[in-house]
Automatic annotation (TrEMBL):
<dbReference type="Pfam" id="PF21953">
    <property type="entry name" value="NadN_nucleosid_C"/>
</dbReference>
<dbReference type="InterPro" id="IPR053828">
    <property type="entry name" value="Nucleosidase_C"/>
</dbReference>
<feature type="region of interest" description="Disordered">
    <location>
        <begin position="315"/>
        <end position="337"/>
    </location>
</feature>
<dbReference type="InterPro" id="IPR036907">
    <property type="entry name" value="5'-Nucleotdase_C_sf"/>
</dbReference>
<dbReference type="GO" id="GO:0005576">
    <property type="term" value="C:extracellular region"/>
</dbReference>
<dbReference type="InterPro" id="IPR029052">
    <property type="entry name" value="Metallo-depent_PP-like"/>
</dbReference>
<keyword id="KW-0732">Signal</keyword>
<dbReference type="GO" id="GO:0009166">
    <property type="term" value="P:nucleotide catabolic process"/>
</dbReference>
<feature type="compositionally biased region" description="Basic and acidic residues">
    <location>
        <begin position="24"/>
        <end position="38"/>
    </location>
</feature>
<dbReference type="GO" id="GO:0005829">
    <property type="term" value="C:cytosol"/>
</dbReference>
<dbReference type="InterPro" id="IPR006179">
    <property type="entry name" value="5_nucleotidase/apyrase"/>
</dbReference>
<feature type="compositionally biased region" description="Basic and acidic residues">
    <location>
        <begin position="315"/>
        <end position="327"/>
    </location>
</feature>
<feature type="signal peptide">
    <location>
        <begin position="1"/>
        <end position="16"/>
    </location>
</feature>
<dbReference type="InterPro" id="IPR014485">
    <property type="entry name" value="Pesterase_C1039"/>
</dbReference>
<dbReference type="InterPro" id="IPR041823">
    <property type="entry name" value="YHR202W_N"/>
</dbReference>
<feature type="domain" description="Putative 5'-nucleotidase C-terminal">
    <location>
        <begin position="393"/>
        <end position="590"/>
    </location>
</feature>
<dbReference type="GO" id="GO:0016787">
    <property type="term" value="F:hydrolase activity"/>
</dbReference>
Amino acid sequence: MRFLLTTLALAGVAAACGDDHTHDARDGHDHAHTKREFPSSPLAPPSRPLTWGALNILHTTDSHGWLLGHQKTSFPEPNYSGDFGDFASFVSHMKELALKKDVDLLLVDSGDLHDGTGLSDGYAPGGVDAHASNQFFKELPYDVLAIGNHELYIYNNTLDMHQNFAPRFNGRYLSSNVNITIDGVSKPVGSRFAKFKTRKGRAVTALGVLYDFTGNDKNTTVQPVEAMVKEAWFAAAIKDEPDLFLLAGHMPVSRDNWPLVFNAIRAVHPITPIIILGGHSHIRDCLQLDGRSMSLESGRYMETVGWMSADLAAPKHERRHEGEDHGSGQGSDTKNITFSRRYLDPNRVTYEYHTGRGNFSFDTAWGRSITKGLEKLAKTFDLSFEYGTAPHDFTINQAPYPSNDSLLSLVEQAMPIALTVNNTRASTPNIMITNSGSLRFDIYAGPFTKNDQLTASPFADSFLYIPNVPAVVAKAVLPALNGAGADERRRDESMEAELWARGYVGTRYREWIEEMYRRDVVEGGEARRAAANLTLGYVTSDACPGVGDDTPHAPLEFHSIPDFIASAAPAVADDAPIDLIFVDFIETQLIGIVNSVQKDKVFTTADVSQYTDILATELLGIFAQQAWN
Ligand SMILES: *[C@@H]1O[C@H](CO)[C@@H](O)[C@H](O)[C@H]1NC(C)=O
Ligand SMILES: *[C@@H]1O[C@H](CO)[C@@H](O)[C@H](O)[C@H]1NC(C)=O
Ligand SMILES: *[C@@H]1O[C@H](CO)[C@@H](O)[C@H](O)[C@H]1NC(C)=O
Ligand SMILES: *[C@@H]1O[C@H](CO)[C@@H](O)[C@H](O)[C@H]1NC(C)=O
Ligand SMILES: *[C@@H]1O[C@H](CO)[C@@H](O)[C@H](O)[C@H]1NC(C)=O
Ligand SMILES: *[C@@H]1O[C@H](CO)[C@@H](O)[C@H](O)[C@H]1NC(C)=O
Ligand SMILES: *[C@@H]1O[C@H](CO)[C@@H](O)[C@H](O)[C@H]1NC(C)=O
Ligand SMILES: *[C@@H]1O[C@H](CO)[C@@H](O)[C@H](O)[C@H]1NC(C)=O
Ligand SMILES: *[C@@H]1O[C@H](CO)[C@@H](O)[C@H](O)[C@H]1NC(C)=O
Ligand SMILES: [Zn+2]
Ligand SMILES: [Zn+2]
């Protein structure tokens, strides 16, 4: 099945240039760049038209720099091949449709614009992460945006958002519970809330809330959500009843603190429509906290564009004018609101289908200029610099671990090759350990570029070591780190909570893709998939009525992975002294483990030194230069 689909994709790659755009938009088209102008394979269209309501929303979240879309031909990447220029054209056409239908259409983003691709992270030394890619974000007509945790790891990034990003949105870049300290003065990074009217005259009160994140840099502040809802400014902001509350925020719609905000508003306004647009856990999710509210979360990495419609009543002031509102101040409509939601695969086929456009009438000059600008940025950052050619796909969860197709197995193999380059300790036997969470994205067959290196391994961690560890002790460390015992499991849970607070979402995302895979197996798996001609992608099961996915898919294979991985142990005597090398992110845990698997010596940070100047972000490139050339 996989093999067949791959062959199909490769056969379809040819088309890149020349459509009926007779003029400017296509001129100066850069043939050197690998970005595909059109889907590289025939894409399945969406299953059905969108349901429009009186108020409609397009939602993005956790884009993490993926503004050039997903450019690989391995499945399901072509599903997400739309770039931000295509998205801009889509937004233009949707705005026109909304005008024609005489309804509201809002555009909302829930944060995490930093960290994830070369466009955000491939800047030259001295630059600021995502400063350049955010210039394209700023071109889109967002009505409301919320700050994400990835805007807060580095003070300069937050400062850039405050000084250069927020002003563009005139008070609609929201950071209700997030401040930055500048010259000793603490102030919101954006605005705490916004009140505005939609085109159709609906009064909106909007907030932008960040989950209880603790990994923020010095001179930035994240106030716990529970404390935020007790603030006097909060009470004042929600006091007057709008036509709807729009709660954007970088906080998952399930299993987090949205109910605190929701209940605080419901205590004052029992029936006012509340729309929640969440993010952060990188999944597609939807639920309703009551019949006059819906909460939507729209995935990650521009693999999803969210859609919500709500059959809201006419704006209050109009109802009053028409004598429908009898002075209760709450409106006459107390019935459940009809909502719809949809998770779109961002690609031109989806965009064209929902805007009634064809391949040749879809692009706008504005959209094309964004695409061209992004391609130019990719060139400036030299993102298509090739380290080598990946012989096949290496995936995090689609292949069993260990195996030749596992990215984790590849990293185990790559560490001893890359980290010993120009290293005086290269000849000392060693074991090298890292955490699987340091890997963020699969590697696909074909050119392995600077951009691919940054998407696969975006965290600039360094490597440390303890010398002269008896081989038998070093060998016991990995199994202990991945520990199966009850003590280890308890520690895992508190470690998990700690990692969550610091912003690590891998576990939650993996639970989601594992669940869809298991469900599919139960429902008949491969056979059903073939009969329905389903292509690979996300298969969402959420708590909202009806089917959420816009294009039906079969789930990707899922294999679970350990939290920690290591290079092969050297063949030496048990008591031979070797180097125990590990990524700095796990230093505290690792020292604890070394002290638990032996009692001859108490190891401390004083025993730890830097092993190499090479960073985790460089490891795969150095490996590829040697092994894939
Ligand atoms: C879109 O246009 C390109 C360029 O002419 C062409 O190669 C491709 O087949 C077209 N796709 C569709 C779906 O018509
Ligand atoms: C998604 O990926 C599949 C392969 O799994 C491909 O066949 C399909 O055409 C892609 N696009 C869409 C829109 O489904
Ligand atoms: C932050 O930015 C300022 C100027 O923009 C620069 O001087 C400083 O070195 C940067 N700090 C870091 C830690 O990058
Ligand atoms: C925080 O800001 C203050 C002044 O605004 C400055 O003195 C201090 O060094 C900053 N702290 C850090 C860790 O950057
Ligand atoms: C955030 O800034 C506002 C405005 O300057 C200030 O009143 C508030 O105390 C700050 N909040 C925190 C948690 O520092
Ligand atoms: C209204 O919505 C709520 C929550 O979704 C549901 O429990 C209730 O049954 C609905 N009421 C009607 C009349 O549909
Ligand atoms: C994995 O790769 C190795 C080395 O290339 C090869 O010898 C082995 O047969 C492969 N294993 C499988 C299951 O393909
Ligand atoms: C290793 O040293 C050589 C010679 O100085 C240099 O060209 C190369 O870039 C170095 N490699 C790494 C990965 O630092
Ligand atoms: C699946 O594809 C085959 C061949 O294109 C077609 O004959 C069949 O009707 C399709 N089945 C469904 C359920 O769409
Ligand atoms: Zn994110
Ligand atoms: Zn996040």
